[in-house]
Amino acid sequence: MSNQLIVENLVKYYPIKDGIIPHTIAEIKAVDGVSFSIEEGTTLGLVGESGCGKSTIGRQIVALEKPTSGSIFFEGEDLTQMTASRLQEKRTNLQMVFQDPYSSLNPRKKVFHILADPMIHHHICTKEEAPSRVDELLDMVGLNRSAKDRFPHEFSGGQRQRIGIARALALNPRLIVLDEPVSALDVSIQAQILNLLKNLKAKLGLTYLFIGHGLGAVRYISDRIAVMYMGKIVELADADTLFTHPLHPYTKALRDAAPVPDPTLRDRKSSALTGEVGSAMDIPSGCRFKNRCVHACAGCSAVNMELIEAEPGHFVACPYALRFAETPKSAKGGAEHV
Amino acid sequence: MLKLKPVNIPSSPADTYNRQILRRFLKHRLAVVSLIFLGLIVLLAILAPVIAPYDPNRITGGFSQAPSYEHWLGTDQSGRDVLSRLLYGTRISLLVGFMATLISTVIGVILGLLSGYFGGWLDMVIMRITDMVMSFPYILLVLVAAAIFEPGLVNIILILGFVDWPGVARLVRGNVLALRETNFVKSAEVAGMPKGYILFSEILPNTVAPILVYATSVFALSILDEAALSYLGMGVTLPTASLGNMLNGAESITILTSKPWLWIPAGSLIILLALSINFIGDALRDAADPTSTK
Fold it and tell me: pTM, whole model, 2 decimals?
């Protein structure tokens, strides 16, 4: 299978302006040189703490913002170099589902218009075909067809998220960026939405970039997972490998921080992190994680955080990772819950 | 086909947004009374040619006669029927107020939308012009404009319309700045919708309520401004009657003290119109306020 999306050395700095004549006094380095690719029909999970830059990557991919530097190749074409008109044409292939289902639907629009207006604009269907196409979309996301005559405020959070998914599907996209699509929902609804997303992917052959911080959800839906820390990917591996056999100390800490609903594991060894995430305005030299790392050593200041292929298909941004790697556990170990 | 059980959606709650606003509005007794009063006055003004007992510009009696059976509200200094002039004058004053509000709201909304959505140098230019217009003493600006373009019905509408827009522009810009960052606007961008659609179909409908509220106060102000200008002889010119120029006679002390029918009807109608429009605006503001618990 081919790589549908290739992100190369993506950098996004946000300038902070001040002064009477506004000039840049500092930069927030939200994403600082990130590269990855997603194969067609697979899901890449992107995890990390709040503020690590994972949502920023999502916004660059759907072209809501222009990256500071780097390239985003979608099906061989660089989105960052496209003309505005070519981008307007191409971007229907890349859609997004937003985190908050309450602010992502226009409160003054009926569901029918939310779904039909973009389809009619892009000539995906005519005005006459729109009602049947909307019905089809509502069926796909498991909503009653009568929903199309209602306003968003008449729905619950889970139902709104289904509308948000239907809207993303309306333009027949090939890749969908899911920006924490379930983190604003109840746990029981989360599972429903995740299953819906999985089914839709299988049925329509979609590619997903799933951004999240709930590790269970990310593991459940992803084929591969990238872990981010302060604008850099620190580890990238198959979903199961990452959980059973993490190499980077940050990944381990992240995995161990997830609560396990099993009382017999209550006394398990915890490698909970201490300290705070540093400021993205003032990034330490060398390894960005060294201040919080349990294995920090003198050499860490010289680490450049490039991804190293430690094992086939398993990348890590720490040259010392293999030295203190855990021995591989059986596939049943680790965080099994969703 | 994907096998999914449709999720049952509870039946639509009767309280849609518009109905909720109407329900909250109706709780303001004063505003409801004001609305009825305003409706009545508008009706009388529209029907003026039918109702008015005399031609408002013809001399039909003696000078400055007190109210009588022939002239219910007396006659003015030129011998014209005050009641007929009052009806026609209300017509003119409401027309000036309405048109000036319409012009300033349209200008303000368009500039506010552009300024808030596109930002950058466009925002900078528009906002500096707004500041400039706002920093002139209002009545002086209007007077100077009236002096340059010579008084008259159309000119007074245009002058008031082109002077009142900065408030609306700022209001709309502020709302757009907030709405521009919402996810539903972002998703329209991701869907590749044109800018015009995003501005007028996604953003504008969400800022209509505050614009309406603001427009009511501009409406009341425009009526007052027209009255003030016409009173000073810089507004609607005679013989066309307006509520403002009917007060011209009140410049003299004798008329103020001994001939109240020359100024009390027009004066009190101006007050009542401005008051009722402001009451309606207040109630609208309460009704459209999403944090209101009434």
Answer: 0.80
